[in-house]
Each structure stands twice: as structure tokens, then as C-alpha cells.
């Protein structure tokens, strides 16, 4: 009986304090910026693969070779960045002159949510940036086009 009480005491999370909430908020922002970086890296790899496929087909080889060199030297004309809101960070993908919401990230819980529209997320967390397993899985699965944000029958553990 004593070990049960001790176990339940050890498993009970500490009540939130101003300091821990500040730490979580800064962690969430840091992990959100890292997600932006991972999405940008994925976009670069995708662009490089597209040009390499065209070279393999023999299509306009000189153009695609130059394009690959340009990407390797200067990256691509896209960016992923955060726009802070009252409740969520809006992770925005800017492609030349167009902007779209890639996903929303809850500023207090770290939940990553697929966007339903420019202003609101879809229901149901896809990942959680404060959970190390979920965060690493998010970084591993993320793709610039957002396919990893669609719910699948096997992703119930992602946001745990």
C-alpha cells in the first residue's frame, strides 16, 4: 500500500507555476521554429529531387543542372515562419507572393493542429511539441506540403 501511495505521488505533476508556464511557452516557440526549419529543409530536398528527376529523363538538362546549383547556393524562394496570435502560433508558408497557413500550434499546450482555414485550426491535435516522442515524430514525418497533418487510423499516439 505504501508503494502505491509513493508511486501516485511521484506520478502527480507539479502544479503549474509562472516560471514553468514561461518555460513551456518559450519551449513551444523554440520547437515551433525548429519545425519551420525542418519544413524548409524538406522543401529544398523536394525541389532538388524534382530537378534531378528531370535530368534523369533528359529534359532540359542544362536548365535543371543550373537550378540545382542555385538551390544549393541560395536555397529556394519560400519561407516558413510563425505569426503569433492570442491562442495559437500560425505557421505560415510564404511562396513568392502567396501565403498559406501550414498549421496552428497551441501556445499553451504545444499541440500541432492542421489548419481548417486561414483563421482557425481543425479539431484534434496531430502532434505535441512538448512531448519528446511526439515532437521527434513530427520532425521526422513533416513535409512541406502538409501531408503528415492528415489524420490516419494509426496516429492516435502522435499527440500523446
Report on the architecture of this protein.
This protein has 160 residues and is of the alpha+beta class. The protein has one domain. 46% of the residues lie in helices and 19% in strands. The chain has helices spanning 2-11, 18-57, 61-74, 132-141; strands spanning 78-84, 88-95, 98-106, 111-114, 127-128. The chain has a five-stranded antiparallel sheet. A hairpin with a 4-residue loop joins strand 3 (98-106) and strand 4 (111-114). Helix 2 packs antiparallel against helix 3 (61-74). It is elongated, with a radius of gyration of 20 Å. The two termini are 29 Å apart.
Radius of gyration over alpha carbons?
20 Å
Q: What is the number of E strands?
A: 5
Tally of discrete structural domains? 1
Task: Tally the helices.
Answer: 4
Which outline best applies? elongated
Beta-sheet strand percentage?
15-25%
List keywords for this structure.
single chain; 160 residues; alpha+beta; 5-stranded antiparallel sheet; 46% helix; 19% strand; disordered N terminus
Amino acid at each position: 500500500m505504501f508503494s502505491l501511495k509513493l508511486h501516485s505521488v511521484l506520478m502527480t505533476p507539479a502544479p503549474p507555476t509562472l516560471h514553468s508556464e514561461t518555460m513551456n511557452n518559450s519551449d513551444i516557440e523554440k520547437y515551433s521554429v525548429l519545425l519551420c526549419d525542418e519544413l524548409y529543409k524538406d522543401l529544398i530536398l523536394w525541389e532538388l529531387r524534382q530537378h534531378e528527376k528531370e535530368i534523369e529523363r533528359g529534359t532540359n538538362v542544362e536548365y535543371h543542372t543550373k537550378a540545382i546549383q542555385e538551390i544549393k547556393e541560395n536555397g529556394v524562394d519560400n519561407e516558413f515562419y510563425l505569426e503569433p496570435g492570442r491562442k495559437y502560433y500560425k505557421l505560415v508558408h510564404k511562396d513568392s507572393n502567396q501565403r498559406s497557413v501550414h498549421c496552428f500550434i497551441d501556445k499553451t499546450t504545444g499541440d500541432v493542429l492542421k489548419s481548417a482555414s486561414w483563421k482557425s485550426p481543425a479539431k484534434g491535435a496531430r502532434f505535441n511539441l512538448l512531448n519528446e516522442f511526439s515532437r521527434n515524430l513530427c520532425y521526422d514525418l513533416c513535409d512541406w506540403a502538409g501531408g503528415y497533418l492528415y489524420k490516419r487510423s494509426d496516429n492516435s499516439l502522435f499527440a500523446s
